[in-house]
């Protein structure tokens, strides 16, 4: 076998190399080490700075954010990394309607634009955390793929059609479903359910107005809402067992950890008190609520796979 001649490099890595992602992760690990006020969340070459502030203190939040952005900019200059400032933007998520506007946010000498929504690892976040834009994008993407599949629906047997919709359509709905499925409105969930119903009709050869409940059960599929409940409860259970990720585990506390008196409900997760509907979208609220609604036979299982099977059996029985 012939190989090309070796090439010595003093900086950077070849595009598509196996070690490239690992070396980049090691190289960029110190990017947030000097930040004073904000928190850095990064995945590969995608990074976000998060600053929380009280109502009426937007100006001070912008000041400390600009200070940390200056640190990031100086770090990139020292290490020879070019920041794509055109793709950088500011997303403000107020806790109530009518919050003050965000001031001038600078990265170097460039003012960052303020946007109403931003894509984060494939999830479309908006300023109101309604995630309606993400649901609309999912529906457009899945319906486009489903239309292509319908053109060749007579070429494949039923088993192949089921695998196609699971791989090309339902997988798009399932992506990040525990994240946005517990937040979106009932109307948005119905949009996703209609897409799933179209998939069932495609697989089973049903007409437009035929009922799909029996056909869906024959395929072994849960509704979108039940799938969200199943995956969310398994996520909470896995976090409790493994303790990872830590920033989510610290939001799940049993009653025995916050109350001095011992009761039979010591293992029930403590739910924070909420005063506004906006606060119900927090993981710290809906995760304990979902977990506490499970039966004791499910939460008492010691193995994650048993927990998943018991949850799925319970959801199908509804």
TrEMBL record:
Pfam families: RVT_1. PROSITE patterns: RT_POL. Residues 1-125 form the Reverse transcriptase domain. GO terms for biological process: DNA biosynthetic process. PANTHER family: REVERSE TRANSCRIPTASE DOMAIN-CONTAINING PROTEIN. This is Reverse transcriptase domain-containing protein. It comes from Homalodisca liturata.
């Amino acid at each position: 076998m012939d190989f090309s001649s070796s090439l010595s490099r003093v900086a950077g890595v070849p595009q598509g190399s196996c070690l490239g992602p690992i070396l980049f992760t090691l190289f960029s690990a110190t990017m947030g080490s000097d930040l004073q006020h904000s928190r850095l969340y990064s995945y590969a070459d995608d990074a976000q700075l998060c600053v929380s502030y009280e109502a009426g203190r937007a100006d001070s939040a912008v000041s400390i954010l600009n200070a940390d952005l200056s640190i990031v900019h100086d770090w990139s200059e020292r290490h020879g990394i070019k920041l794509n400032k055109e793709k950088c933007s500011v997303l403000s998520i107020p806790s109530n309607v009518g919050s003050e506007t965000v001031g001038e946010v600078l990265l170097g000498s460039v003012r960052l634009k303020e946007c109403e929504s931003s894509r984060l690892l494939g999830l479309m976040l908006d300023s109101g955390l309604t995630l309606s834009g993400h649901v609309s994008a999912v529906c457009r993407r899945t319906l486009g793929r489903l239309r292509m599949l319908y053109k060749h629906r007579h070429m494949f047997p039923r088993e192949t059609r089921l695998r196609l919709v699971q791989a090309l359509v339902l997988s798009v709905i399932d992506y990040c479903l525990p994240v946005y499925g517990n937040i979106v409105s009932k109307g948005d969930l119905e949009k996703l359910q209609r897409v799933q119903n179209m998939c069932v009709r495609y697989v089973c050869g049903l007409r437009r107005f035929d009922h799909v409940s029996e056909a869906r059960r024959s395929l072994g599929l849960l509704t979108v809402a039940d799938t969200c409940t199943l995956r969310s409860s398994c996520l909470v259970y896995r976090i409790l067992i493994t303790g990872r990720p830590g920033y989510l585990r610290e939001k799940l506390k049993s009653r025995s950890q916050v109350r001095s008196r011992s009761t039979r409900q010591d293992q029930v997760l403590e739910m924070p008190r909420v005063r506004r509907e906006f606060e119900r979208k927090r993981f710290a609220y809906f995760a304990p609520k979902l977990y506490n609604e499970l039966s004791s036979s499910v939460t008492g299982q010691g193995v994650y796979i048993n927990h998943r099977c018991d949850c799925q059996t319970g959801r199908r029985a509804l």
